[in-house]
Amino acid sequence: MKKKLLVLSLIAVFVFSMTACGGGDGGDEASAKTELTIIDGEWYGLDTYQLDSTAGGQGLNSASLFQWNAETGDVADNVCTNWKVSEDGKTATFDVPEGMLYSTGEQVEPEDVIASIEHGQKVSPYNDGYDNIESMEWEGRTVTLHLSEFRSDMLYYFCAGFVIVIDKDELDNMSDEELMWGCHPYGLYALAEDGYVSGSEVNLVRNEGFKCANPLVKNQGAGKFETVKVRFNVEEFTQTEDLKAGNVDILMSVGSDQYLELQDNEDIEMVDTTYPNIAYFEMNTDHDVFSDINVRKALALAIDRDGLAESVDGLIAPAYSMIYDTVQNFNQDAKDWFQKNLANDPEQAKQLLEEAGWKEGKDGIREKDGKKLEFTWYAWTDATTIPEAMAEQLRQVGFQMNIEAIDWNYVYENISADKYDAGIEWLSWAEPMLVLNACHYDKNAPSNTDEYFDMVKKAAHETDGEERTKMVGDIQMYLFENVNMIPMYAELSFSAMNKDLKGFNVLADGSTPLNDLAY
C-alpha cells in the first residue's frame, strides 16, 4: 500500500486485537452520557468489502469475524469462534454462535457469513487475500472452508475490518451500490434513519442485539452509548477547539501540530494508536555510487535513527527490520542482526569508504577518480524534515545527499522505472507477507528474485506460527545480504480524547476495539 494513498484513513484501520488501555476501563453500567461524538477520517460506505480503505472508528458499525491477538500471535474469537485449521492447511472450520442479532432484529446465521465472504470474493479489492477458499459449507452452526492452500494473509483479513457479516437477504436483494449505504452490517451500532450526511457525518444508533465473544474486551454486549455521531472532513483548528471545549469526545487521528498543542492539556488524553508501518528506502545498485556494496553499507551505518526522531519531535520510532516490531510474526533475531551490523556506526562507515577509495575532499565530501560521493534522494513534498536531518548525518561521513521533493506517487513511479539514486518508500500492513510481497519497487533490485518470492510463498503457506516467524527472519536476512533495502522508521499515530472517557483499548498492534467506550 502506497504512502499517502491511505495514510489518513488506514493507519488506525484494521482495528481489533490485545489490551493496553488508554483512558481506563469501561464502566459496567450504561454510560451516563448517552451520545458519543468522534471526528474520524471520511466514511465511504458501510459495505466495507467494496472499500479500499476504512476509517478508524468504522469498527463501531461493523465487527470483524475474528480478533487478532498480537500478544499470542494467534486468532481469537469475536463474532465467530473456535477457529481451527487442519494440519495439511486445506480445511478450516469455525462456529457462528446463536443469539447475535442485526439491528434489524434478524439473527446472524452461518449462511450469512458464507454469503458475505462470497460477496467479498466478488467485489473486494483485497479478495486475493482469501481467494484460496475454493468452497464453503455449513452444518448446524459450524462453517467449513475448503482451501486450495493455507495462506497466512487470510488470517489477517479475517481479523480485519474488511471481512464482516451482512445479512444474506440483503446481499441477495440489493445492488452493490445500494449495499454501500443501505446494508446493516453486524456491529455495535447501526446507521440511523437518514443518518448519512454526504461528506460530513454519519449518525449511528445502538444495536441492542449485539454480542460477541472477544476475550480482549470487557464489554461483549451492546455499546454503552445510545447514539454515536461521527464527523469528518473537519478542519484541524476546529477539531482541536471542539475537543478542548468538550463538544467532541475523540479525535481518532491527530496531526503533528495538534499533537504538540494537545499533549500537555490536562483535560485531554493522548493515546498512541500506531498501526504497523515501515518507512524504508532502496538504493539503486545500477548507480555509480551504489554499485559498491561497501558504499551501501557505509550509508546504512551512518544513519542515526534516534537523531531523525528528534528532528520531528519524536513523531517517528526507529526501525531496524522490514517487518516492524508489532507486525505478525515479527522476528527479533533479524532486527538484532541489522541493528548490530548495519546501523549506528559512523566511524565504521568512514572506514569502509576509505577502503573503497573515497577520500575526504576540502569541503568534507569524499571524492574518487575526480567524482564526488554524491546522490539524489527522492523525498515526499510534504515530508522533508527527516531527509534534511539525514543529509546532515551523511555529510558527517562524506556523502553529499541532494534532496528532490516530489509527489509520493512520482517517487514510486521513478523507482519502478529505475530512474533514481535512492528514495523513500512506505508500507502499512500488520501481516508480514503483505509487506514482503510489496516492498520491491525497484524491479532490478538484486534481491528481487524468484528465489526471494519462493521463500515468501513458502512462509505464507506455513501453518505453524513459530516456524513462520523463523522463516520471516530468514527472508529478511536474504534482503539484508545485498544492503540495498534499508528500514528506517515507523510513523507514529495518536488519538486524542476527553480524559474522562474510559475503555479506549489499544492493542499491541495498534488496533482499537471500541466495545468498552463509556463515561
UniProtKB/TrEMBL annotation:
What is the protein name for this chain? Solute-binding protein family 5 domain-containing protein
Asked whether the UniProt record includes Cytoplasm among its keywords, one would answer no
Which Gene3D superfamilies does the UniProt entry name for this protein? Dipeptide-binding Protein, Domain 1 (3.90.76.10), Dipeptide-binding Protein, Domain 3 (3.10.105.10), Periplasmic binding protein-like II (3.40.190.10)
Task: Provide the taxonomic classification.
Answer: Bacteria, Bacillati, Bacillota, Clostridia, Eubacteriales
Gene Ontology BP, a term: peptide transport
Q: Which UniProt keywords apply?
A: Signal
What GO cellular component term, any one, is given? periplasmic space
The cross-references to PROSITE patterns, in alphabetical order and at most eight, read:
PROKAR_LIPOPROTEIN
